[in-house]
């Protein structure tokens, strides 16, 4: 598996699937979810809500509407919109997204920082948890993962988490 950190807009990534750090109800209001809905269209939320409730630790795949990606993987970090979460939910959502990507045969996927917005998880802690889950994933797909954000703080957290993992820290 190749992992790349990229300063990019998640909604413009030309990958097989992008990951939406969702809520169990499938409501796409703010943060990454809101951006995905605005750029991709209401159909994405309608499909996610049709699969609700989606447990934290599970994931569903919907179409990507007008996005450049082929699909959206909705991996809930919280039961309802606006809840504060712990880092374990970041781990569970990351793991669920990876399993969904493998199950659907996606080669390339893009993750934003999970749980770092409304969820309130520290960026460094979230990045470490996400990288730990990437390293633990043993399925052949996805082959390429992009950790993307537009904010330097999140990009630095991803970069540091990857460097520390490679050094065994």
TL;DR?
By secondary structure, this protein is of the alpha/beta class. It has helices spanning 31-40, 42-50, 87-103, 123-136, 152-166; strands spanning 2-7, 17-23, 60-63, 71-78, 108-111, 144-149.
Globally, the shape reads globular
Strand arrangement across the biggest beta sheet: 1-6-5-2-4-3
Given the helix and strand composition, which structural class is it? alpha/beta
> Count the strands?
6
List the domain count as a whole number.
Answer: 1
CATH fold node name: Leucine Aminopeptidase, subunit E, domain 1
Q: Using only CA atoms, what is the Rg?
A: 14 Å
Strand content: 15-25%
Q: Helix amount, in percent?
A: 25-40%
Mean pLDDT equals 96
CATH H-level superfamily title:
Leucine Aminopeptidase, subunit E, domain 1
The CATH architecture is 3-Layer(aba) Sandwich
**Major beta sheet, specifics?**
6 strands, mixed
How many H/I helices?
5
In words, what does this structure look like?
With 169 residues, the protein is α/β, with parallel strands linked by helices. The chain has one domain: Leucine Aminopeptidase, subunit E, domain 1, CATH 3.40.220.10. The protein has helices at residues 31-40, 42-50, 87-103, 123-136, 152-166; strands at residues 2-7, 17-23, 60-63, 71-78, 108-111, 144-149. The protein has a 6-stranded mixed sheet with strand order 1-6-5-2-4-3, with helices on both faces. Strand 5 (108-111), helix 4 and strand 6 (144-149) form a beta-alpha-beta unit. The two termini are 20 Å apart. The model has no long low-confidence stretch (mean pLDDT 96).
